[in-house]
C-alpha cells in the first residue's frame, strides 16, 4: 500500500558510480518511497557506525544504490493506514531494515511498516530519543539482559569501546543503576569524558587488547558490555568471575574469537548476544518506556553533538576512523 501524497524533501543520498560511492544532498519525492502503512516527517536522526558503512558502499549493509542511510528516525506521523497511529503523533523508528535497504532517517520523510513504529514515550523529546537512538537502545538491551545475571554487589563491570555510541550510553546507564564500571578506551584525551560518565577506572585499549595466550586469566570482573569484539571480548571472557556474564553487540575490532571452552565450563560464565535490529516488536515499547524513565541516561545532554545533513561526510569519516565520542544526531531543517 502507498500514500498518494506527493511532497518534495531533502535527503542525504549515496550514489554508486563506476565503483565509487558519492554522497550528495538531493531533492527527492515522497511518491518514490517504498510501500508502508505509516508516512513520517523526520525531525531528527542519528549517526551510527552502520550508517557510515552504508554510506561508503558496504554491500553487507546496503545492497543497492542510490540509497539514503539512517538507521534511526524520530518525527511526526503525516499519514497512516492503521488506527493506532494518527497524523501528528510523535514516533520513533529504529532497527529493522531502516537505513539499510529501506530509505532511512537521513531523508526528511520515510515510509515504513507500522510494526517498525513506536510511539514516543512521555518523558522523552524527539531530540532526546535520537541522542539515545539505536546505540542507546542497544545499551539498554545489554543492561537489561546483563542485570538478570549480574548485580551491582557482584563486582566491577567492564565496558569496551567506552567512548563510542553504545559504550558511552552503557557506561552512563550502568553507573546510574549502581554498578562499579571500568572503561576500556584508546582515546586518552577522552578520559575526563569517561570519568564524567561514571567510570571508576580506565584501561587503555592497547593494554587490554594485548593477546593473552593463556586459556583463562585471573578473575577480575563480574560482568561486561562489549561493543567491539575480537581480542577485547576474548580477554573479558577469560577474566570473568565465576557465574559472570558479558553481552556483545559489535565486531569493529574483529568477528573472530580465539579461545577455549575453559572459562565457560570452569567458571560457568555466560556470553549474551545483543541485536537491536531484530529486537522483538512487542518488547520495544516497554524498553523505550524504561529509557524515558529509570533508564534515561543522566548525562544524556552531555554526550551528543548535533549536525545537519551537510555535515555528514565529515562526521562519517570521523566515525570510521574512531574519532567520534558520545552520540552524533542529525537535525532536519
Low-confidence stretches: none
Strand-pairing-aware structural class: alpha/beta
| The level-1 CATH class of the largest domain | Alpha Beta
Q: How confident overall, as mean pLDDT?
A: 94
Number of domains: 2
Per DSSP, the total helix count is: 9
Helix content percent band = 25-40%
What radius of gyration results from the CA coordinates? 20 Å
CATH topology of the largest domain: Quinone Oxidoreductase, Chain A, domain 1
The outline comes out as globular
Strand content: 25-35%
Number of strands: 15
Largest beta-sheet characterization: 7 strands, mixed
CATH H-level homologous superfamily name of the largest domain: Medium-chain alcohol dehydrogenases, catalytic domain
In short:
With 333 residues, this protein is of the alpha/beta class. The chain has helices at 49-55, 126-146, 165-176, 191-196, 205-208, 230-239, 262-267, 281-291, 312-320; strands spanning 8-17, 20-29, 38-47, 72-80, 90-94, 109-112, 117-119, 157-159, 181-185, 201-204, 221-226, 240-248, 270-273, 304-307, 327-331. The protein is built from nine helices and 15 strands.
Amino acid at each position: 500500500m502507498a500514500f498518494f501524497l506527493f511532497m518534495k524533501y531533502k535527503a542525504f543520498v549515496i550514489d554508486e558510480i563506476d565503483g565509487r560511492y558519492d554522497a550528495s544532498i538531493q531533492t527527492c519525492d515522497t511518491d518514490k518511497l517504498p510501500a508502508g502503512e505509516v508516512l513520517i516527517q523526520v525531525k531528527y536522526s542519528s549517526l551510527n557506525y552502520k550508517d557510515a558503512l552504508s554510506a561508503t558502499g558496504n554491500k553487507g549493509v546496503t545492497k543497492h544504490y542510490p540509497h539514503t542511510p539512517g538507521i534511526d528516525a524520530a518525527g511526526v506521523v503525516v499519514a497512516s493506514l492503521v488506527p493506532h497511529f494518527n497524523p501528528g503523533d510523535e514516533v520513533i523508528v529504529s532497527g529493522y531494515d531502516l537505513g539499510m535497504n529501506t530509505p532511512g532517517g537521513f531523508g526528511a520523510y520515510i515510509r515504513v511498516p507500522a510494526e517498525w513504529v513506536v510511539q514516543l514515550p512521555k518523558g522523552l523529546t524527539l531530540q532526546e530519543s535520537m541522542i539515545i537512538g539505536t546505540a542507546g537502545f542497544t545499551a539498554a538491551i545489554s543492561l537489561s539482559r546483563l542485570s538478570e545475571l549480574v548485580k551491582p554487589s557482584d563486582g566491577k563491570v567492564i565496558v569496551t569501546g567506552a567512548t563510542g555510541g553504545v559504550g558511552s550510553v552503557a557506561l552512563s546507564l550502568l553507573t546510574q543503576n549502581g554498578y562499579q564500571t571500568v572503561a576500556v578506551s584508546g582515546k586518552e584525551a577522552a578520559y575526563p569524558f569517561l570519568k564524567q560518565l561514571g567510570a571508576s577506572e580506565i584501561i587503555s585499549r592497547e593494554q587490554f587488547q594485548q593477546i593473552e595466550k593463556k586459556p583463562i586469566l585471573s578473575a577480575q570482573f563480574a560482568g561486561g558490555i562489549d561493543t567491539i569484539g575480537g581480542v577485547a571480548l576474548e580477554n573479558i571472557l577469560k577474566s570473568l568471575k565465576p557465574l559472570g556474564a558479558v553481552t556483545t553487540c559489535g565486531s569493529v575490532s574483529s568477528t573472530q574469537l580465539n579461545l577455549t571452552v575453559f572459562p565457560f565450563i570452569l567458571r560457568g560464565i555466560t556470553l549474551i548476544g545483543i541485536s537491536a535490529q531484530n529486537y522483538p516488536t512487542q518488547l520495544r515499547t516497554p524498553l523505550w518506556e524504561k529509557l524515558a524513565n529509570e533508564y534515561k541516561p543522566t548525562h544524556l545532554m552531555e554526550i551528543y553533538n548535533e549536525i545537519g545533513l551537510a555535515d555528514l561526510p565529515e562526521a562519517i569519516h570521523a566515525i570510521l576512523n574512531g574519532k567520534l565520542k558520545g552520540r552524533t544526531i542529525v537535525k532536519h531543517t
